[in-house]
Design brief:
Blueprint: H1 2-8, H2 25-32, H3 53-66, E1 69-70, H4 80-93, H5 101-117, E2 127-128, H6 131-148, H7 156-168, H8 180-188, H9 193-196, H10 215-328, E3 337-339, E4 343-346, E5 352-354, H11 355-358
Parallel strand pairs: 1-2
Antiparallel strand pairs: 3-4, 4-5
Length: 360
Amino acid sequence: MDEIVATLTLDAYKGKIVVILAGYDQEMNGLMAVNTGLSSRFPDEIVFENMKPARCLELLSKELKKDGVSVAELDNPESSQYAEMSGLIAFLSALPSWGNARDMMTLSKQMVRTAFKNTSVDNNGAMLLSAADVISCVSGMLRDRRERSSNVPLNPEQRNLQFMQQILQPDAPTAPIMHTSSAVKAKAAPPKAAEATQTPAAEEADDPRDDGVPDSVWRQLCADKKAAEEAARRVEEDLRVMEQELREAEAREKEEKKRKLAKQIAAKQAKDAAERDAVQRQLEEQRLKEIHAQAERQRKAAQLAAKKQREEEERRKEAMVQAKLRDMGVCEAGFRWVKQADGYRCTAGGHWISNAQLGI
């Protein structure tokens, strides 16, 4: 990285080179921290915001329709199931591993596989997928991403606040401008008796109601608020269950590590014992080989000594025979005598004396 900074400062490249660094926020911040002068070399920053939950669900619906899968709740933003799905997507998008459209493509493929397992089709021949199956797929991805995430999660208060902000106002249509004076006036004015009989029970909520808001719109708004609160409650419950499952998984992992370590120690001890036995066998084999080699050496030494003794005796006897032959004077020339089968003959060949004559 220092080399890159040094290169960017060269006059030869000034105004002639464009360098683009792309990556996730955490990695880019770490990269900028490597060199103190690096940040000033990249003055322009383009931040790609995450897709809103409503846009994600719209993309998911389009991808499912391409594969002939229909989910009625994805096209009905006013349904409670849509609010729950939107809340799950909002929480997914808060994770560091969120992939926007890429994750929507992944979810679409999972849902298509789920739809193939069902046999229900609509009037147009499209495969039907229930909102419960969609919520199950999204919840599964959320659970998996949380388990794989290595970042420190937010504390419950921060997480709930962030989550509620995202799911209670997901791409909400622009509300009409509220004038403070009229709102105060509407709150202060006593309700008429005739209107009181027609006011829905949901109007008892803490939020003030603007003048001129129809009952149907107000009822739908209250229903949506309740659906969002229910979705938040469900997600919180899912998170509680997943956190409990995570703690149990961590406990199982620790226990498994202990068992694995015990097995490794036992295996090492067994291996050491086996190695000791093998070494002991090798030493015993070597000792037996040495004993055998020593016995063989002693046997050969005895054979050599006996052979030398016999040879020495033979030479002594031969010397006595040669001396006796010379004393007998049979060969006047005095040639040496050669031992044959039954006696001796002089090397000239003309004289012969038998063993009987020599007395041997």
